[in-house]
Amino acid sequence: MSNGFLNAAVPRRNRYLLMRHGHSQANAQGLIVSTPECGLTAFGLSPQGVSQLDALLLDWCWPVPTRILHSDFLRTTETAARVAAHFELPLQREPRLRERHFGDLEGQADDRYPRVWALDARSAEHVEHGVESVASVARRMQAVIETLEHSLDGETVLLVSHGDPLQILLTALEGRPLSRHRDREPLAPASLTVLQ
User: Fold this and answer.
1) 99 belongs to the catalytic site
2) In the annotation, is 70 catalytic?
3) Does domain 2-195 have CATH number 2.40.160.20?
């Protein structure tokens, strides 16, 4: 599944594929899992997520990656590992691609996300409920691309991350207000977006 092609105003030295992890055990259980304490070693891919990735790799229609960087959460690591095995590539952990921290909502039902998103729409700087601000997520996600732009040239880099961080990154790269990140079509599990 593709969420479309975005044209950057400034040419990049590398091509980037942004991928949300496959359907996870947290998705299946309807839980918010956003801390390293829970996300690094538990809540990996669900059977549905494994099937999604198998289908995606069977019908791969995007540029072939030359490098894969991934959030070190289990669900993103397992997603990236399946792609890496398919293309015989090494993996590189990148903690800046981690899930957005949802503070006091950790471990609660995922029907609480809209509460945070409503606050996001008022201010990209808010940290109510102890959540990581949208602005902070945007800075760390953009810093990954900036680092790669300074260190690589002519590569096709697959970045495997999470729904909210990728939505926020795409909003930032489009030059739209970060408070509007939920205006974008939500990124489905195991979806790819190509930055041109």
Assistant:
1) yes
2) no
3) no
